[in-house]
Amino acid sequence: MRRATDRKSSKTKRFVILTVVAMMVVMLALTFLLCCYILKAESHVRCVSILNVASERVAKTISGMEMNAMNVFDEVQKHLDSPEAVIAALKGKTTLNPDIKGYFAAFEPDYFPQRGKWFQPYIYKAEDFSQYVETQVGSGSEDYTKSELYVRAKGQGTSFWSEPYYYYDGSDMSGHYCSFMTPLYDADGKLACICGADMTFEWLTKELKQIDYTSKQNEQLNKYLLEKEPDFYTVVMNNDGTCIAHPEGKGLLLKDKQVINDLKQHKSGTVEMIVGGKPVTVYYGPIKNIDWSVAVVAPVQDIPQPVILAGLALFVVAVLGIIVILKLVTI
Hints:
This protein has 331 residues and is α+β, with helices and mostly antiparallel strands. It is 44% helix and 23% strand.
């Protein structure tokens, strides 16, 4: 009778100990999974913070470029009395922003009869950037008043940024551009001309490089980062999902229909995709006052090596503890 009681007591003891061991294993696994989740959440918050900073900085830079361009346009509007005064006004403030390649004023047909039907002075930087060069655009074979941008500016009546485009004429002016446009009116409220400022995307590429460098050097932003160096880069996207500017001059295309819809509606979001053969998460969000979006491209968050090593160490300790407990039970 006593032996039966002892066996029953031993079985109960083993059951309790094995239950405790099983609970320890489950708690260890849950703790490890929780740590992984927290690390991914921390990475998400960091990327969103970088996205917000990048969006604000690019918006601020664009706003400054608009202001400088408007200063030039205001000078043109003050000197609509003669074509010579217009050209002088364009030249007078062209040094306000070194990132703007050229300025133009496309006048309504016969606005200055002495200059003919088409008058569009264009002031641009020489190839060596030592001076500005004046050219005349527009002719019977090249009626700028029928161009998409001219028609849009005339009909819209307000300032706007053009879609990115590629211009080629075989000279140093060839390249990828975007133009800031605005219509100008004379004292009688009649449309005089459409003014524009052309710029390449070199300034935006430099801005993105600076944003990435500043973010990677930010001690507060990367205070609890377990990796040696954060791995991400920032790009600017058009609302059709194409990449306007990349810090390394590479391309990136967002094809997901929901993402493109978000870009057109100025919404934020994330999408996972393959870039350069590697899985990445793209965090995207709008830029104020322009139909562009900023995107932060970061590798899909793997479990950092320090966490893996810590998990293995805990696993080994747990296994050793279980072995010891089991031996004690069998004694």
